[in-house]
Amino acid sequence: MKESKTISSTSTRRQFLRTCGLMGLGLAVGSVVPSVAHAVSRPGRDSMAVTRTLPLMGTFVAITAVHESRDLGEEAVGRAFDEMERLIRVFDRHRGDTAVSVLNRDGRLSGAPAELSAVVALSLSLHSLSEGAFDPTVAPVVDAFRRRAAEGLSLDLSPAAMTDLLILVDARQVSSHDGRITLGRQGMAVTLDGIAKGYIADRASAVLSACGAKNHLVNAGGDIRACGSKGPGRPWTVAIEDPAKMGRHPDVISLQNGAVATSGSYEVFFDHSRVHHHIVTPATGRSPRTAVSASILAPTAMEADALATAVMVMGPGQGLAFVDSLPGRECLIITATGAQLSSRGWA
Which of 12-26, 52-66, 141-155 has the lowest mean pLDDT? Predict the structure, then answer.
């Protein structure tokens, strides 16, 4: 498989960062039915913190909103969850009636939802910026691993079988213009799992702000978007997940207006040794092994989500240099040997 063209100019990075900012803006919020919170606490004398947790996107999503009114806080949280569920019906490629599944089935999609077009556009931009490390067209390889694991077959594909799959992996064959998305080769498919969850968390955050809950935290299974604070002089506190699941958090950070996302080999894997997992190196079809997790600090959860995947593919050395070249973005990488490596401005 040919390597993607190297793009490292300052103008390209500025264009990418500007695109991220534009796509982070929330769209209009429709009317939804308010939900009931699971827990309520009092973070400040004049405000209430409303928290609710739901199983969504294969994980648990928790939203905490701080508001002067308990009822309005509950309504804001309910509207945010309804927006998330609406967007899941756009991006879930495992359901046959979603926009992404139709695109993968037919190889093209006319009248694509604006949300899908936006996320595809950022995916293609990040593919260029990361020199191909982030590639939404790795779906055929990931699906082959998942299918063979379910059937009890070896995940070590023959060179010929892997070559046939890698022909379908090339984001440069994807075009998106005026609501029409096209996959350039028959059999191609996209997976937006490495970016859409962050985008959905951002949109939930936009809904909360629009409903008057300016101070809130959205935790979508490790993709976290924070706005404001949980109380006067009390920023949100986020613990970076321990890849070994032993409860020893690599770091604990304070977060006010921004996002953090972690991608790791421990999240979804297809064999007990975790050699084959959901993150795939586009050039080889193999899962990266030099890092077990990458956590990214960025202005939006969508960007943090995608950059975390790219850094995992790049590996520690290249990944750190890549993030250091992006102003306002930071990372913490846990290597396969347990070492912790951080970018220059990590908190």
Answer: 12-26
Q: Domains of the chain: which residue ranges?
A: 235-347
Residue 18 has pLDDT above 80, yes or no: no
End-to-end Cα separation, the chain, in angstroms: 38
**What angle in degrees, to the nearest 10, is found between the helix axes of 139-150 and 159-166?**
140
- Contact between 227 and 205 under an 8 Å Cβ cutoff? The reply is yes
Whole-structure pTM value = 0.85
Torsion from C-alpha of 315, 318, 319, 321, nearest 10 degrees: 160
Q: Determine how β-strand 59-67 pairs with β-strand 215-220.
A: antiparallel
Q: Is the pLDDT of residue 140 over 50?
A: yes
Q: Give per-residue pLDDT as tens, 221-248.
A: 889 999 999 888 889 999 998 776 777 8
* Integer CA distances (angstroms), 185 to 61, 106, 170, 242, in order: 36, 11, 9, 39
Under DSSP, is residue 253 helix (H, G, I), strand (E, B) or coil? strand
* CATH code of the region 235-347: 3.10.520.10
Distance CA 50, CA 72 (A): 10
Unique residue bearing structure tokens 């993709």: 223
Tokens 């910026």 correspond to 129
The candidate with the shortest Cα–Cα distance to 193, out of 302, 271, 293, is 302
Which sign, positive or negative, has the C-alpha torsion 191, 127, 298, 14? negative
Tell me what pLDDT residue 278 has: 72
Cα angle: 36, vertex 38, 43; to 5 degrees = 105
